[in-house]
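Work Package 3 (structural annotation) set out to generate three-dimensional models for the target panel prioritized at the project kickoff. During this period the team completed the workflow that converts sequence records into discrete structure tokens, so that structures can be stored uniformly alongside our sequence database. As a representative example, we reproduce one entry of 201 residues exactly as it appears in the project archive.
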Amino acid sequence: MGTPSGLSAAELKREQILQGALQIFLHNGYAGTSMDRVAASAGVSKITIYKHFQDKEGVFKALIEQVTDQRFEMVFGHFSFTEDPAVLLRRLAHTLLNLMATDDEYIAFLRLIIGESGRFPELAQLFVKALPQRVWALLSNYFAAHPDLHQRHPEATARIFMGSLMSYVLTQNILHGQAIAPFSPELMIDSLVDTLIDQAH
């Protein structure tokens, strides 16, 4: 029977584990996190964790899926992809950069993924599949549906659009560049969208 929150007891326990695990991973990194620490943070036994997740990698993979699903919905879940590109692309970009400017947990998670990517490339690749590839496909389809933009390679355009925004996030938010090399997000967005739209005319 479901709980008042709409989740079953097993789903609530799984969520409890993931919330505890996230804080430990963010603080200690992937290699530095033990199942003992996860269990203590989540307030459960290691046996309970193994009941829901096969091992530490299983916990981390579930976290990647959860964190990326949540952010995908936050940025892309409320848009109708029937709007004019000049309007939609600006709104998307503003939504993304506004979220990144305030979502300290996600910025910390991105730092974790980047920091561990050298030792654990398969986990970084899982992140790429879970979010960037999903976004590229969505935007590729959108650009392909707008021949008026005259984009010969919709996926390349999608990667350029998102790559420009994520480069801004990387230098301004993740690497603390806003303190030494500030750049207006509004100017960034206007210049990026104008470049894509102006190319079509």
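The two ends are 58 Å apart (CA to CA).
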